[in-house]
Amino acid sequence: MKGEVFKAACLQVNASNDLQANIDEASRLCVEARAAGAELILMPENVAMMEWGRSNIVLKAMPEDQHLALKSFQSLARELGCWLHVGSLAVLVDDGMVANRTYVINPSGLISAKYDKIHMFDVDLGLGEVYKESATFRPGDSAQVARLPWGRMGLSVCYDLRFPHLYRAYGQAGCNFLAVPAAFTRTTGRAHWHVLLRARAIETGCYVFAPAQCGTHVNNRETYGHALIVSPWGEILADALEQPGFVIADIDIKEVIEARRKVPCLEHDRPFSLPPKG
């Protein structure tokens, strides 16, 4: 394992449905974050494409071995000599569906880990704001861990944040960090974003990295922004607020150890019977 302290950065972008423009903007911010000392740079969900409607998303999704954004970010990782977490890309899969897939790329440009979003955002928020990801996306079925030089990072995407058992499993598997790239809606973000991310950090004693989409996108979809870095004690170390850019913070592995020493709840599970339904 490398030194105990390193810098991590989370990007915040306002992605459009223009693939190359989105790649260029994310790459520009990565260059800036690397110049600021970041050794790990994380991107938000849908970093290369914020599209609307099943037909449009499927049309612009690409197979993994042909994905232009993935190839671009692999080259960027080599150029910058750092770890890149590609929040998520729309990857065309065999059954005509799309995987919402995270990639972690090492400084040699090789894929170190990947993860397909497990939980589908099928909700009706009222006033006509309806989302049904399961109509377009094939859900993943396995938790995945990226092995970084500083420790293990549990992978997730956006709506996964509402399922705390996933993160507890990561904590008990020895993860020091949790990645939660997101395109959280403005409606749900205002109500739940900060408190859920802080809760996941507190429950696991992990650092939480939450890069985010912000602003208004195609079809007037609005995302909340506020890319966050949260300490293992639940403190917000950096908040990107509402504009595109990035946040950066020092990450100290000793803080993980100390938080878990104070409250070793990952070791305190006990069996219990479930209440009856109804």
Automatic annotation (TrEMBL):
Keywords: Hydrolase
Coiled-coil zones: none
Hydrolase found in the keyword field: yes
Family according to the record: Belongs to the carbon-nitrogen hydrolase superfamily. NIT1/NIT2 family.
Record keyword Hydrolase present: yes
The name this protein goes by in its record: Amidohydrolase
Pfam families xrefs: CN_hydrolase (PF00795)
Cross-referenced PROSITE patterns: CN_HYDROLASE (PS50263), UPF0012 (PS01227)
Domain CN hydrolase as annotated: residue spans: 6-253
InterPro entries reported in the protein's UniProt record: C-N_Hydrolase (IPR003010), C-N_Hydrolase_sf (IPR036526), Nit1/2_C-N_Hydrolase (IPR045254), UPF0012_CS (IPR001110)
Source superkingdom: Bacteria
Gene Ontology molecular functions: hydrolase activity, acting on carbon-nitrogen (but not peptide) bonds, in linear amides
